[in-house]
Protein: Cupin
Amino acid sequence: MTTNVIEKTTLAWPNSIREEFEKNQLNGRVGTRLLSETNRVRVWEIRLAPGERIGFHRHVLDYFWTAVTPGRARSHMEDGSVVEAVYAVGDTRHFSYGAGEYKIHDLENIGDADLWFTTVEFLDSANEPLKVYAEA
Structure:
């Protein structure tokens, strides 16, 4: 995976993106489809067609994601930065959050083919799981 920061302030975000960011501060829906949930894990699929995006959501649980397909994406991050990334099949990243720590971002497919990830959240993390909104 390669990344490039293209913006560093929310002032560059369109109004619709800033408004959605404010509205979805506590959205725990970190994928487009919840595939499985047990008392230990939530397994998510993120599948985005070209130009499609998953809206802002908050990560509070330890988790990892794996790219199932190659592709390109753009994310608006809670610190105001906009990051573009290129993914290869099998790229995997792990994240861990201490009590009170989190990350908020969105994800948009800016490539020309479907972008697909599998994400696994660990429910026994330092933070309580967030409510999963009906729609991301």
Notes: The helical segments are 15-23.
